[in-house]
Amino acid sequence: MAEKFYGVKLTDMTGKVYYTEIEVKHGLNHKISVQSHLPIDSKFPIHTRIGRSSYWSGTITGAFENNQDGECEHDYKFGDVNFRINFIEWLHNGLTKTMTLSDELILPVAILGDIGVDIENAISDPKANVSFEWEQCGERINSEVQLNCPDCGQVVVPTTKFCPNCGKAVNSNG
Amino acid sequence: MAEIIPKGSVYDIVDSKYLTAEPFAHEMGIDLEIEVYDIYYDWGRTNGYYDPDTTHELKEPLYIGKLEGIVTAANFTLDSTSDMRSTCSLSIILEANSPFIVQAEDYTDWEKKWFRIIKKYNYLNDVDMYPRYKWDDKSGLWNNNGLVDSDPSESVLGWFIPNEGSFSYNSETREFSMSCTDIMSCFTESRGGHLSTRFEGWIGYNFYETAKAYDNSVIGNINDDIRVSAERSSGFLMEGEKNHQIADKQYNNYFAQASTQTGNVSPVWSDSYSKYSQETSGSSAPNYNNPPHIAKQGVAGLVQKIAGEYTNLAPVSEINVRLQNDWKSLPFDIDINGDTSLLDVLKKITELYPRQFIYFDTNRALNVMQWSLAWHEPWDKTVFRSRECAGFVLEEHWNVSYENIKNYVAVFGRDQTYYGYYYITSYKGMCEKCGRIFDYPAMPSNENWRHCPVCGKDQPLRRLFVTDESFCVQQIGTHKEVIFNDNLTTEQECFDAAKAICLESCRAKKTLSVTLADRYLSIYQRADKGIGHRIEYTSKLTGETDIYTLVKWSNDFTAGTVTMELEPYYTCRDEYASFSDAANKDSCVILPLPSFTYEVDVNGLMTMIINNGWFTKHCLFKVYVFEIFYEPDETTGKYDFWFDSIAMRFLGETCEVYSEETETQCQTKVLRYQFNKNGKYIITCQAWSPNIHPSSCPEPQVVEVNCFKDRLITHDGLYITTHNGDRILCS
What is the Cα gyration radius of chain B? Predict the structure, then answer.
């Protein structure tokens, strides 16, 4: 039986993969645009759904520490300043991220304007939690349409040509 | 699903369900579809007169795609008082793969685009609200208004042209914003729509052809075209019934000036013009100071001809004209300068008579129209019923402005020997014998004033409670205006002008603003969306059903609301009662006088039974009341209701059928009203229908209510005095 996913994983077309399971906190919202009106002489309000918007958004807080130098993604090297800086700048590179929150919830997302880093003493603290907001910007990647690397099984963005994990070609049409 | 009530007849059936709110979708979705078109102007390339049988669109707009994305803000306005009837502003986050992203920042490209915007109604929970029908080879959606051709799933909001410089695009958020106006802007200065533009374009093209041509016979033909074009670009004179012998030399000779002043035209033009001048010198030199006359003809044909000649400025699908006296020629000459826009030309014609409009509808048709001047116009019926929106009215607000009200207007004509005047008072009375409407004097100086001046003192005037008459001399004082007008040369013209000004300035100051949740309305199936037409509406504040003109419609898409600006409907011409009889039922212009009986039970509940003959089934009845505190005349034993009838207030209305029509008795309707205090009241009523002038009011009757006992009316510390005089000792 495959290991159940836990934590947060982010990838994009640059091929980089960031994953953490440390001190992860989520705020998850689903949004549509609805106006509620109460007509004169009416007991109940009536509702008008405006447009077609229907998407997920949320906040994530977690300690994205360097787990890319060890043997597996659960081996962390804490206090890596370069890793933190590169991670934050990567988040804001403008590319759509594929965010895995569980095996059942994989979303293409846009990272919104502010990324916060919780530092107690110095940026080289062993642990520094990173907080940011995101919004869904494409259809949810469910198990039917989920694209995995045929070589290593990594979930990849449907439009990508190469697996960000192993570098193999993943999209024959590309 | 409500019972399907057929609409469209002048004589609506007003039954007990007439005012019952129709069902509507409580939870639904709305969305916008924004189609993008390329426009190719045909400036000067095509000429010729408009012939409705042979002339078709010069260039149909070319559909190039849709703006796909999430609309973050959108506002639409249809305003009958504005030259630009349709306007909109919108912001949309374009989809990442939208083909328009490439050019989103190229604002010169957007200038050439037109937009056709359609609102979609998605009935998420009410799929059975608009069932499908299939009759013979026709199929579609049937809605509860009995509209066969209407598709309640969409409404075309109109065609829109972007305003210059109104674009913005944020490449980070992919949000594109713009504001737009309607096609009429092509016929104004804002898009080079003055008359000379059209002919100068034509001239320029012909000059170009002349420069290329080597065959003298061809050059000769082209030169004739140039001469005609040059004359037309200087303006023209539309001949009317009078004045057309007076040659006015003050035209703006726009083309001649531009062509002879160095540096004002391009070298290509000036070279071609020189060549043209040399070839025509010594022969019949063109006289640019004699602009052509458009010979006297019917106004409808004249408008078709002028508008048709300029349709190359914009792709107009059709031209519809229906104006007052449009089979006659203009009453007087109208001269037009070359730098006048086509809109200004048409306005000079439409402003001759009241309630005439120029607008583009959602089918890109240019309409030059007059809407109903009076009740009972078979070609302009009330287009909307109150019950249709009764369930989703969100807000209602009355606006009253007392500024610049004039209810007395005197007009002097061209040489001031002709004059006419007109004044308005809201107090009107009608003679039930001859059907004429007269002023209903508030303070009659003698008894003769209370009777019909034509029929004599056996025929008393009956008060007309027509609630559209918002202002009057007695209420706000006398406001006068004196106008000198060169174009008026008879007393009748002066009178007509005074009346039109007076009606326009006296009563158009009271408006009702109604905000609705955004739901499909039957008027959306119309190409003009019902703007400028009469609609029926029941005020939530007063409870009174009345006829209004839909002056303005606006929609905040993201708020999901629609706001209608309504003006109480008023007539622009005199109406006379033509009372019907069984042999000629269609002759009714004003509803006949109703009669009523009443009884008050021991609890103060009044039951009022009303009818006005066979018209009862077509009428709603309004009831008016006033509490009086005096006794009848000692000698005659009668009450004098004259003064009180002016002060009566609206009590309520009914469409509830009390008994059905039989062979011997007409249908009757009933109003029930619960009095809540003792007193003496006078009551009367009025018959009302959405398409026919309301009736006058029958002689009021006195209702005495004396059923509320033992109610505290005074308290002096020691005793409580009840209404019937009993004194109770306070404990």
Answer: 32
- Looking at CA atoms only, how far is residue A45 from chain B in angstroms? 8
Contact B31, B123 (CB under 8 A): no
Contact A51 B540 (CB under 8 A): no
B558 in contact with A at a CB cutoff of 8 Å?
A: yes
Q: How many domains does chain A have?
A: 1
Contact B30 A40 (CB under 8 A): no
Q: Is residue A59 part of a domain?
A: yes
Exposed / middle / buried, residue B124 (Cβ in 10 Å: 0-12, 13-18, 19+)? exposed
Residues B631-657, mean pLDDT to the nearest whole number: 86
| CA B227 – CA B292 distance, rounded (Å) | 11
Cα angle at B578 between B574 and B581, to 5 degrees? Answer: 165
Using a CB-CB cut-off of 8 Å, the residues of chain B touching A39 are: 391-394, 517
**Amino acid present at B218:** V
For chain A, say whether B540 makes contact (Cβ under 8 Å): yes
Residue B496 buriedness (CB in 10 A; 0-12 / 13-18 / 19+):
buried
**Measured between beta carbons, which residues in chain A are less than 8 angstroms from residue B558?**
33, 35, 50-51
Q: Which residues make Cβ contacts (< 8 Å) with residue B463, sequence separation at least 6?
A: B427, B428, B429, B440, B645, B646, B684, B696, B697
Q: Give the CATH number of the domain where residue A144 resides.
A: 2.40.30
Q: Examine residue A169 and state whether it is found in any structural domain, yes or no.
A: no
In degrees and rounded to multiples of 5, residue B513 shows phi and psi of -105, 120
Q: pLDDT at position B493, please?
A: 81
For testing contact with chain B, the best of A47, A54, A55 (most B CBs within 10 A): A47
- Which two three-digit tokens encode residue B210? 């002349």
- Beta bridge partners of residue B377, listed in sequence order: none
Return d(Cα B178, Cα B521) in angstroms, integer: 27
pLDDT digits (tens, 9 = 90+) for B360-382: 999 889 999 998 888 877 777 88
Query: What residue type is B331 in one-letter code?
Result: P
Cβ–Cβ contact A33 with B under 8 A: yes
Range of the domain at A60: 8-156
Question: Taking a C-beta distance cutoff of 8 angstroms, is the pair B15, B657 a contact?
Answer: yes
What residues in A contact B561, CB-CB < 8 Å?
Answer: 35, 37
Q: Cβ separation of B517 and A33 shorter than 8 Å?
A: no
Instruction: List Cα–Cα distances, B310 to B46, B104, B187, B191, in angstroms.
Output: 10, 31, 8, 13
Cα distances (Å, whole numbers) of residue B89 to A50, A61, B36, B558? 17, 39, 15, 12
Q: What are phi and psi of B183, to 5 degrees?
A: -60, -25
Q: Is A43 on the interface with B (CB under 8 A)?
A: no
Q: B118 by DSSP, 3-state: which?
A: strand
Q: Are B528 and B359 in contact (CB under 8 A)?
A: yes
CATH superfamily ID and name for B590-705:
Immunoglobulins (2.60.40.10)
CA–CA dist B180, B76 (Å, integer): 9
Hey, where are the domains in chain B? 29-190, 195-202+212-355, 386-568, 590-705
User: Which among B32, B393, B518 has the least Cβ separation from residue A39?
Assistant: B393
Question: Residue A164 falls within a domain, yes or no?
Answer: no
Asked whether residue A76 is assigned to any structural domain, the reply reads yes
Q: What is the pTM of this model?
A: 0.80
C-beta separation of A17 from A83 below 8 A = no
Which residue of B28, B70, B540 is in closest CB contact with A51?
A: B70
User: Residue B7's pLDDT band (boundaries 50, 70, 90)?
Assistant: very low
Check pLDDT > 90 for residue A29: yes
ipTM entry: 0.76
